[in-house]
């Protein structure tokens, strides 16, 4: 049974390891090509966009794909919308690996905002020392609030020119741990963190460190992420795939 995994997350990588030695499935992992040196994966990997919904439909038909697993990040909402549309058009099943959001704990100083534009405004007028832990793609938005001192964590250095004037780039790839995150916030005298509600453990340490240090967090709400059949873990995904395989074979 031929399977396409839309990846780019911890869950996608662990699902890839589960399927790599499973003779029932011939799986391919797909990345968008957002990073210059993506980590090697346990499955054959294709890199780059498909070219919209039509491009994905052609890929699924040409590749005779029998099922798709959307294991993309909670903020990768466009990929999920395209996957749902394309699988319906082609008539193949779609499983969506959903990751539960973080919930506010006692002591969390979160300010919830709708999107990154609202996060810029939420920082306020008075200059602050801001830790931007939201990657590279939306950094240019913070040029609209040049009064702050920014520490931005990215994977690859941004090429964009219109970046905020007082910006220090930290190139690092998750997952991150509590001790290092606490040291980072202290050493840079961070007084506010901007974060996505990614969920999972890979980047939760910054939230725990902020809580321990009494540093507020501007938390960007998740976008609506379309889904097919929702599964909660890589293991559950394999069970779903086996069920799809059986119905494909009429057993
Ligand atoms: C290209 C693949 C694995 C997957 C690892 C997860 C965990 C570590 C934590 C912070 C937050 C952030 C960012 C982050 C994390 C995992 C996971 C995750 C957050 C890689 C990867 C790709 C990407 C794309 C990248 C984005 C950026 C977002 C950095 C590989 C490493 C901020 C999301 O520099 C850039 O352009 C980065 C772009 C999209 C968000 C953005 O808007 O900038 N992820 N991240 C995937 C592709 O091409 O399809 O390079 O190996 C994967 C991982 N990043 O295999 O173990 O599962 O979430 N990724 C966020 O959560 O806020 C860092 O710094 O605290
Ligand atoms: P997005 O906004 O939902 O998608 C934008 C376009 O990128 C899609 O329409 C598609 O291009 C392409 N694309 C996205 N994911 C792809 C994949 N896995 N394989 C092939 N093409 C893909 O996506 P994004 O938020 O930029 O995320 C890009 C990648 O980074 C995804 O793999 C995601 O899991 C990973 N990631 C994102 C975040 C984040 O904060 N957004 C965090 C961690 C990891 P076409 O229209 O040309 O097909």
Helix content: 25-40%
Query: Over the alpha carbons, how many angstroms does the gyration radius reach?
Result: 20 Å
CATH domain topology of the largest domain? Rossmann fold
Q: What is the name of the CATH superfamily of the largest domain?
A: NAD(P)-binding Rossmann-like Domain
CATH class of the largest domain: Alpha Beta
In what order do the strands lie side by side in the largest sheet?
3-2-1-4-5-12
Apparent shape: elongated
Question: Mean of the pLDDT scores?
Answer: 97
- Ligands bound here? ligand 3Y8, NADP nicotinamide-adenine-dinucleotide phosphate
Number of helices: 7
Q: How many independent structural domains? A: 2
Number of strands: 12
Largest sheet, if any? 6 strands, parallel
Q: Structural class per helix/strand content?
A: alpha/beta
Q: How would you spell out the order of helices and strands?
A: EHEEHEHEEHEEEHEHEEH
């Amino acid at each position: 049974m031929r399977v396409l995994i839309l990846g780019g997350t911890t869950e996608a990588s662990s699902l890839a390891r589960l399927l790599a030695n499973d003779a029932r499935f011939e799986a391919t992992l797909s990345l968008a090509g957002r990073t210059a040196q993506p980590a090697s994966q346990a499955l054959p990997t294709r890199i780059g966009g498909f070219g919209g919904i039509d491009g994905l439909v052609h890929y699924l038909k040409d590749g005779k794909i029998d099922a798709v697993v959307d294991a993309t990040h909670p903020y990768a909402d466009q990929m999920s919308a395209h996957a749902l549309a394309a699988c319906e058009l082609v008539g193949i099943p779609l499983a969506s690996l959903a990751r539960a959001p973080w919930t506010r704990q006692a002591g969390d100083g979160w300010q919830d905002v709708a999107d990154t534009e609202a996060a810029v405004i939420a920082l306020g007028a008075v200059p602050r020392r801001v830790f931007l832990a939201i990657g590279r793609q939306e950094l240019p938005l913070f040029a609209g609030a040049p009064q702050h001192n920014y520490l931005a964590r990215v994977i690859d250095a941004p090429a964009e020119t219109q970046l905020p004037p007082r910006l220090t780039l930290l190139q690092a790839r998750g997952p991150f741990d509590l001790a290092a995150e606490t040291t980072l916030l202290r050493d840079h005298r961070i007084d506010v963190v901007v974060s996505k509600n990614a969920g999972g453990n890979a980047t939760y340490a910054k939230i725990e460190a902020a809580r321990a240090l009494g540093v507020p967090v501007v938390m960007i709400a998740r976008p609506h992420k379309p889904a097919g059949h929702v599964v909660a873990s890589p293991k559950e995904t394999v069970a779903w795939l086996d069920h799809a395989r059986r119905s494909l074979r009429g057993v």
